[in-house]
Amino acid sequence: MRPEAFHPIARLLHWLMALLILAMLFIGVSMVVDLSPRHTLLLSLHKATGLALLVLVVLRITVRLALPHPPLPHNLPAPQRWAAGASHVLLYGLMLGMPLLGWGMLSAGGYPAPLGLPAIAPHDLQLYAVLRQAHGWAGYLLFATVQVHLAAALMHAWVRRDGVLRSMWPGPLRRTP
């Protein structure tokens, strides 16, 4: 039997990560354009939040695979089902890949990783340049994917009114009449 809503742990992880990802996008942009003394603080905050997101996404993937989750509405057209699945794979891939690209970039640049973690890439400035560019482009892709995800959630809530957003809502679940 499939549940009507996501498990409370899955919902907590979803909304916590949503807040942290939005914060990361703004911190990342601010870091690039702000070279004032705040830059060091933003950089430290970016690294720590990225590491937290890496831990949270691994936990989230584990929860997603371990706990049953509600099915998509049965009347959702096949192309939208495919798009929902593909966008979730892309989101999970980006949520996992972004911190790993950042960690690899730090390693290749010879910079210390947060909490004294080991390097995951060899010290190589050409690799650093490639990873830095990949991290930046992945950030743009993540931002765009989050916008599409939000638009789809709002479409389910306001147009289709099919309970998809309600199934992930952080508060108490209310039945629709």
UniProtKB/TrEMBL annotation:
Signal peptide region: none
Cofactor(s) named in the record: heme b
Subcellular location: Cell membrane
Mode of membrane association: Multi-pass membrane protein
UniProt record similarity statement: Belongs to the cytochrome b561 family.
Superkingdom classification of source: Bacteria
Keyword Heme among record annotations: yes
PANTHER family: BLL0291 PROTEIN (PTHR30529:SF6), CYTOCHROME B561 (PTHR30529)
Keywords per UniProt: Cell membrane, Electron transport, Heme, Iron, Membrane, Metal-binding, Transmembrane, Transmembrane helix, Transport
Protein name: Cytochrome b/b6 domain-containing protein
Transmembrane segments: 12-33, 45-67, 88-106, 137-159
Pfam families documented for this protein: Ni_hydr_CYTB (PF01292)
Domain Cytochrome b561 bacterial/Ni-hydrogenase, chain residue ranges per copy: 6-171
